[in-house]
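User: I'll paste a sequence; please echo it back and then give the predicted structure.

Assistant: Echoing your sequence first, then the prediction.
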Amino acid sequence: MKRILLTVAAASAVLAALPVAASAAPWRPISERQANLERRIDQGVRSGELTRSEARRLRSEFHDVERLEAHYRRTGGLSPRERADLDRRYDRLSNQVYHQKHDRQARY
């Protein structure tokens, strides 16, 4: 009986914590994500963590995603599918910025 009560109590605690965990990473507007990515790329160039060619490539990809967003907005606003697509693309670009800044290539 104790085992069942402990299991139910543990399950209740986990289920009660789910909404808190889900809100831990709040939704961020696209403009905020764009500003953050630009800031990270600029900071990487200033610190020497990004070479000029890495920064040029990252900025090119960034502008490609911006153009895609503008296209989506021109064709009737952002649908949930388009928003998810942009989120995935910004996540991918954010990961690329991170990896390029930490790949031990430095501008001399």
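Residues 52-74 form the longest helix (23 residues). Helices lie at 2-22, 30-47, 52-74, 80-101.
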